[in-house]
Design brief:
Blueprint: H1 3-10, E1 13-19, H2 26-35, H3 45-50, H4 57-67, H5 74-90, E2 93-100, H6 103-106, H7 112-130, E3 133-141, H8 146-156, E4 165-169, H9 181-189, E5 193-198, H10 204-214, E6 218-221, H11 229-237, E7 241-244, H12 246-251, H13 263-268, E8 272-275, H14 280-283, H15 287-298, H16 302-315, H17 320-336, H18 338-341
Parallel strand pairs: 1-2, 2-3, 3-4, 4-5, 5-6, 6-7, 7-8
This protein binds adenine and zinc ion.
Domain Adenosine deaminase: 12-332
Keywords: Hydrolase, Metal-binding, Nucleotide metabolism, Zinc
Binding site for Zn(2+): 17, 19, 197, 278
Length: 347
């Protein structure tokens, strides 16, 4: 490991855009399938990992929803969440905000109680054992109907105090934010913070709808906003965070190479850009690999990497007290590694 790799891995980071059901490492997927008496199309972790070649978002979602079938019991939800949090902790993540999309599981008969207990129990363990700051977000599927999304909102209300936000993912093109205007209004009326996937494969107009119609607090991805200068100006002026996922964009062919990734262009426009993992095993990288891939392809400086990480802390759905505590951890690390940021200070 080079000095900069070790520095980025140790840097206290956030992961504000990741999906629990997209975090199942191949071996765990096989183990969970065996535990539940399910037969997968792959016999080995290598074979499964070899299937992670995608043409677009839909080809990924097909595999992602197939993978969801191995999560059945409370223990399954616990184990997958715990495994992600262990990896994220080793990756230097101090604040993670986790999406789970209940519809994939409740439609197959898993009770919402099993899902919530498993996930929340694992989060509590990771808070205790790793000192992580954690929040859970409920995500609905945009390819389903708005009444379906409303039903999810009703289902999770008993856990309202354990949920920091409501989001939406799934097949973007043809399912614009406007389809869910009443759902997001309802989520806001019930006191939730909101975020939505927009401008990943969809156009800038979808990001505009997310901002104006859904009035979300953050935008997941948001890359396509660059096509609309007025929109970029508004997003920058309002400091709306974008949870960008560079390796996801590469693997889903949203960009044809990392060198063409818009991360630096988004930063140059003064946007509140954060870097996140999305679905780490599927896209072959946790937050550190995402930052290093951007550094290698786009020539990010160490200061720019630190700026992106600081943006993550500023965009987190936390109380101001918690934000200050996270910033203190970041600043303590930077003070202890002043030689990396300013090599002239090393003597
Ligand atoms: N990148 C992505 N886009 C839309 N929905 C998703 N669900 C999990 N990952 C996603
Ligand atoms: Zn996502």
């Amino acid at each position: 490991m080079t000095g900069i790799e070790a520095f980025v891995r140790g840097l206290p980071k956030t992961d504000l855009h990741m999906h629990i059901e997209g975090s199942i490492e191949p071996q765990l997927m096989l183990d969970l399938a065996a535990r539940n008496g399910l037969k997968l199309r792959w016999d080995t972790a290598e074979a499964l990992r070899g299937a992670y070649r995608f043409q677009n978002l839909q080809s990924f979602l097909d595999l992602y929803f197939e993978g969801c079938k191995v999560l059945v019991t409370e223990r399954d939800f616990h184990d997958v969440t715990r495994a992600y949090l262990r990896r994220a902790h080793e990756d230097g993540v101090i604040r993670a905000e986790l999406f789970i999309g209940p519809q994939s599981f409740t439609e197959r008969g898993t009770p919402i109680e099993a899902l919530m207990s498993g996930v929340l129990g694992a989060m509590e363990e990771a808070r205790r054992e790793h000192g992580m700051s954690l929040g859970l977000m409920i995500s609905v599927h945009r390819h389903r109907t708005e009444p379906d999304a409303m039903a999810v909102l009703d289902q999770v209300m008993p856990w309202k105090d354990h949920i920091i936000g409501i989001g939406m993912g799934g097949a973007e093109v043809g399912n614009p934010p406007s389809k869910f205007a009443r759902f997001f209004q309802a989520a806001r009326d019930r006191g939730f913070r909101t975020t939505v996937h927009a401008g990943e494969e969809g156009p800038a107009a979808y990001v505009r709808e997310a901002l104006d119609l859904l009035q979300v607090d953050r935008i997941d991805h948001g890359n396509a906003c660059l096509a609309d200068h007025d929109l970029v100006r508004e997003l920058a002026a309002q400091r709306v965070p974008l949870t960008v996922c560079p390796l996801s964009n590469l693997r889903l062919k949203v960009v044809s190479s990392m060198r063409e990734h818009p991360l630096k262009a988004l930063m140059a426009h003064g946007l509140h850009v954060t870097v996140n993992s999305d679905d780490p095993p599927y896209f072959d990288g946790y937050v550190t690999e995402n930052l290093l891939a951007c550094r290698d392809a786009l020539g990010l400086s160490t200061e720019e990497i630190v700026g992106l990480v600081r943006n993550g802390v500023e965009a987190a759905f936390v109380t101001e007290e918690e934000r200050q505590a996270l910033l203190l951890r970041l600043d303590a690390y930077l003070a202890a590694h002043a030689d990396v940021l300013d090599p002239a200070s090393a003597s």
